[in-house]
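Researcher: Please predict.
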Amino acid sequence: MSEEKQKTLCGHIEDELQIKDPAAYKKLIQPATHFCEGCGRSAAKPENVCKPKEL
C-alpha cells in the first residue's frame, strides 16, 4: 500500500476523476460538510480539500 498523501479534490479534478469515474467522485463530495477556502469546492470530509472550512 502506498504511503502517498491522500489526494485532494483538486488532484482528482486534474486526473479527471469526475469524468472517468463519476460515482467515485460523488462519494467524495456527498453529503458535503466542508468547503475549500481556496478554490470553493465542497467535500464530505475535510481531508478531501486543501483549505477545509466547515459548512
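Model: The chain has a mean pLDDT of 88.
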